[in-house]
Amino acid sequence: MIRPRPPAWLSLPNACRRLSLLGLYALLSGVAVAQAPLCLSELSLVEPVADQEPITPIPPPPPADPRKLALGERLFSDPRLSADGRLSCSSCHDLRTNGAGGRGRNAAPSGSLQFDTLTVFNASLNFRLNWEGNFRSLSTQTESSLENPTNLHTNADEVARKLSTDAAIVRDFRAAYDRAPDRDNVLDALVTFERSLLTPGSRFDRWLRGDASALSPDELAGYQLFKSFGCSSCHQGTNVGGNLFARQGIFRPLVQGKPDTVRVPSLRNVATTAPYFHDGSAATLEEAVRRMAAAQLNRTVNDEQVASLVAFLRTLTGNYRGSPVVGAKP
After folding, report:
1. CB neighbours of residue 107 within 10 Å
2. pLDDT tens per residue, range 220-265
3. Minimal CA–CA distance to 42: which of 208, 309, 220?
4. C-alpha–C-alpha distance, residues 285 and 121, integer Å
5. CB 207 within 8 A of CB 214
6. Which of 6, 22, 98, 330 shows the greatest Cβ crowding within 10 Å of its Cβ?
7. What is the largest CA-CA distance in the chain?
8. ∠ at Cα 102 (96, 103), nearest 5°?
9. Could you tell me which of 198, 199, 200, 194 has the C-alpha nearest to residue 68?
10. Each residue's pLDDT tens digit, 258-313
11. Which part of the chain is CATH 1.10.760.10?
């Protein structure tokens, strides 16, 4: 008598077998169940299927007129973008490091609130801009940054007036836009450059694109925890966040003070952008993970889980112009 071969999942360790049964139940019943973390012996079997994951790879920068791109890059570091000629966009958004430099705190346009400086890298992938999500386009956010009285304290028309006294840059504007600097083309040049500030090529993106060796078992285990704990409910999509609003402190306080609701920040390059939260109150990624788990998920995470989650988050560090994004010096 020939006995049928038992299903492959019966040869798995008990813990893994339970997870397989859970998946089988979900498949047969059509009931959505929370994804449980895989045991380490299964992780070697995990292969990336990009279209089935909640996170998608960063695309290459969009095509752009190289003349406009060069102008935008030049303006980004031009102190004539500030009223007193001392500051530029790069004063707060250092492209040599994490796109936010030392992560200083900037006032909101009203001057009433202080926010930790967000990185400019991958900002164009967000559905809204700023911590409060109060800008829908890079152009309106850029114009507001120029007008912020605690920073650049100017406006696009005034910047264009200053630039119009520079024969060389006028020549470049005429070559790119067929006219001298004005409010619209100054903003367009800056936005064109900001759209190019993407950081593709992270190890996690390589894994998503099919390189199964890009992540270690520990990092894969961290990703499974990230999904099973529900972190990917808010941190998903191309920017691993940046595409919805969330209330801060659902189960217990996360930060002190307003606002209660923020645009979910991107986790791209998160290992390089300490401190964390809109008030910069979490000095390390480990602290941020513990506080988020408690406040947003009502979970107490142990040291092993924190280490696993942080290991995964470190795989989200991408490359700018071929080099890995790095943290700013203290």
Report:
1. 14
2. 999 999 999 999 999 999 999 999 999 999 999 999 888 999 999 9
3. 220
4. 19
5. yes
6. 98
7. 95
8. 110
9. 194
10. 899 999 999 999 999 999 999 999 999 999 999 999 999 999 999 999 999 999 99
11. 35-58+200-321, 66-195
User: Residue type for 180, please?
Assistant: A
In Å, how far are 22, 46, 69, 89 from 19, measured between CA atoms? 5, 14, 50, 50
What is the SS3 assignment for 262? strand
β strands within the chain, DSSP E: 105-107, 114-116, 245-247, 261-263, 319-320, 323-324
Give the predicted TM-score (pTM) of the model: 0.83
Give pLDDT tens digits for 81-113.
999 999 999 999 999 999 997 555 554 444 445
Distance from C-alpha of 246 to C-alpha of 257, rounded to nearest angstrom: 15
The CATH H-level (homologous superfamily) assignment of domain 35-58+200-321 is: Cytochrome c-like domain (1.10.760.10)
Average pLDDT over residues 115-119: 92
